[in-house]
Please model this.
Amino acid sequence: MISLLISAANILLQIDSSTNVDNDFAPGLFFFAMIAIAIMLILFGVGVAIVLLCCLCLLALTSLGIISSAVLYGLYKKSFLSGFRALVIAASTIFTGIFSAVSSSVINEFFHISSTRNVLVLGFLFGLVVGFFNGKLANLVLQKVLTFFKDKVLTRSSLS
Model:
């Protein structure tokens, strides 16, 4: 019985002598595969970095109390939109102030404009003002974009 199985396996696995079996290694395909794998790994790393940056921003918003104050403001006004507006304006104001203070400190290190304390305070105050108006502008742009898409959805659904 075993000898029958072995002979059947030999017959089934027998390679025809007329076929030329070479090493089917294609260096071009290997090179292409290595480039594709490298691109996939780079994009995976970029995706992980973006997720970590989003988590860091969410952590900063939560630890500074911006999200909770925006939620409380929205509940007080009984409007989701007013809470979202408060979130955008507060986040823009705080983060622009911090970014402006850090960037003005870096500029002061190169050009020695004034003392570090004065530059940090002035940079932060300037960033707060610019961030507030930037938040107002971002809120206005978001409002216009949302009404544009809402009108598009409503006109498309009324045509159906």
Notes: The chain has a mean pLDDT of 87. The radius of gyration is 31 Å. Residues 105 and 111 are 10 Å apart (CA to CA).
